[in-house]
Structure formats: structure tokens, C-alpha cells
Amino acid sequence: MTNEHAQQQTAAGTISVAIVEDLRDIRDGLATMLKFTDGYRCTGGYRSMEEALEKIKSDVPDVVLVDIGLPGMNGIEGIRLLKERYPNILLMILTVYEDDEYIFDALCAGACGYLLKKTSPARLIESLREAMDGGAPMSPEVARRVIGLFRDIRPPERADYHLTPHETRLLRLLVEGHNYKTAAVEVGVSVTTVAFHMRNIYDKLQVHSKSEAVAKALRNRLV
């Protein structure tokens, strides 16, 4: 399938998903789930990050589900490389690991979400759509750990990005997993207003996407 065809499908509402998972049963199960869910298609299942990096270019997906514990290159390193090669791909962790270090490193590497493998199929499908809508889906256990990281660690001396209190609040909502629509409801403004402020935030942080803004906020403890 050509990239043009894939883009047409995406425009029509279909979300294309690739899977990087070394356990065949899980990989095949995810592919089957996508195959039989309206609005989704699987572009490929890869047992290693090396295989994904080699073959994914033949049909670049919208979202990649990435395991961390892979043979050879781990998922976090792979996310960095995929993000460099395909800046528009959304990269979502799907793993058994819920350690603070893995969560922090994955989000800083460019992951837009972090789900545990015990996530139900219905929630996983919902999370793929949420990511496409600008959200940052996380399993509840992971979201609590992310919030805990900010609550327990005092911000160090850092560069002043001149964020206003309102911009800082919007950035915190993104870190907590909100998309533009839910952030607008939370703050009590329109989605257009949120988008306007987010453009200012991107300019101040010198980033180009929500996942980069979240990663920079985590890395520099801006919220």
C-alpha cells in the first residue's frame, strides 16, 4: 500500500497501527484485535526494534505500540530513533514495566502514552484514538506515578521559559494526559483558546508537538 493510500485511509478515519513486541502470542493477539475492529488496521508486527526500523518505512503507521523489553535494542532507544526518522508518528509504550525510571525515560524519549499490558482490549483501542486526538493515554498506575514525580521532587534551578500561570496550568494538564478538548473543559475556555495558548507554549519551549512539550516539561520539571 502506498503512503498516499494510507493517508487517504487515515483521513477517512482509519487509524493505522504497527506493533513492536517480541512475544509472538501477544503480537498476533494485538494484530487480530486491530484486524477485527472497525476504524483500525495493522500495518505490521515486528519482533524486534531492529526489524521495525528496517521494515516500517514500507507502510508508515499513525501509531506504533512499543514494548520496552525487546531482544537487542530496547523500546526506549527505538522510540528515540523512530521519532528522529518519522517525527509525525505517535509512539505508545505497551509494557509490563511500571518503574518510575522507565516511565520517565520513555516520555522523555518521545512516547505519547504509557500503557501496561494488563490494559483491557477496549481501553487499548480507546487509547489509540485518544492519542490521535492529541491526548497522552496512561494506565492509572502510571498516571499516579507521573503525578507523584512532580509532587515529591522540588523543581531545580532551571531556564526561565517565561510561561504564564495559565500556560503552566495548560502544560500540567497535558502532562496529566488531557487533550485540547478535555483541557478546555477543565480550564473553562474554548478549544480555540487552548490551541492559541499552546502555540505560545510551543514557541517558548522551542518544541513542535504535544509529546515534545510533555517530554520537556518532565525533563526540566516545569510543572
Describe what this molecule looks like in 3D.
It is a single chain. With 223 residues, the chain is of the alpha/beta class. The chain has 2 domains: 3-147, Rossmann fold, CATH 3.40.50.2300; 157-220, Winged helix-like DNA-binding domain superfamily/Winged helix DNA-binding domain (Arc Repressor Mutant, subunit A). 53% of the residues lie in helices and 12% in strands. The chain has 11 helices and 5 strands; from the N terminus they run αβαβαβαβαβαααααα. It has helices at 3-11, 24-35, 49-55, 75-85, 100-109, 121-132, 140-152, 165-175, 180-187, 191-205, 210-220; strands at 15-20, 40-46, 63-66, 90-95, 113-116. Helix 4 (75-85) runs parallel beside helix 5 (100-109) and helix 5 crosses helix 11 (210-220). The protein starts with a helix and ends with a helix.
Task: Describe the secondary-structure layout.
Layout: H1 3-11, E1 15-20, H2 24-35, E2 40-46, H3 49-55, E3 63-66, H4 75-85, E4 90-95, H5 100-109, E5 113-116, H6 121-132, H7 140-152, H8 165-175, H9 180-187, H10 191-205, H11 210-220
Parallel strand pairs: 1-2, 1-3, 3-4, 4-5
Helix pairs in contact: 4-5, 5-11, 8-11, 9-10
Straight-line distance between termini: 43 Å
What would the average pLDDT be, to the nearest integer?
Answer: 88
Catalogue the unreliable spans.
1-11
Number of separate domains: 2
CATH superfamily of the largest domain: Response regulator
Q: What is the strand arrangement across the widest sheet?
A: 2-1-3-4-5
In the CATH classification, which architecture of the largest domain applies?
3-Layer(aba) Sandwich
Shape: globular
The biggest sheet, with number of strands, parallel, antiparallel or mixed sense and barrel status, is: 5 strands, parallel
Order of helices and strands: HEHEHEHEHEHHHHHH
Count of distinct strands: 5
- Share of helix, binned: 40-55%
Radius of gyration: 17 Å
CATH class of the largest domain: Alpha Beta
**CATH topology-level fold name of the largest domain:** Rossmann fold
Strand content: 5-15%
- Estimated structural class: alpha/beta
DSSP helical segment count: 11
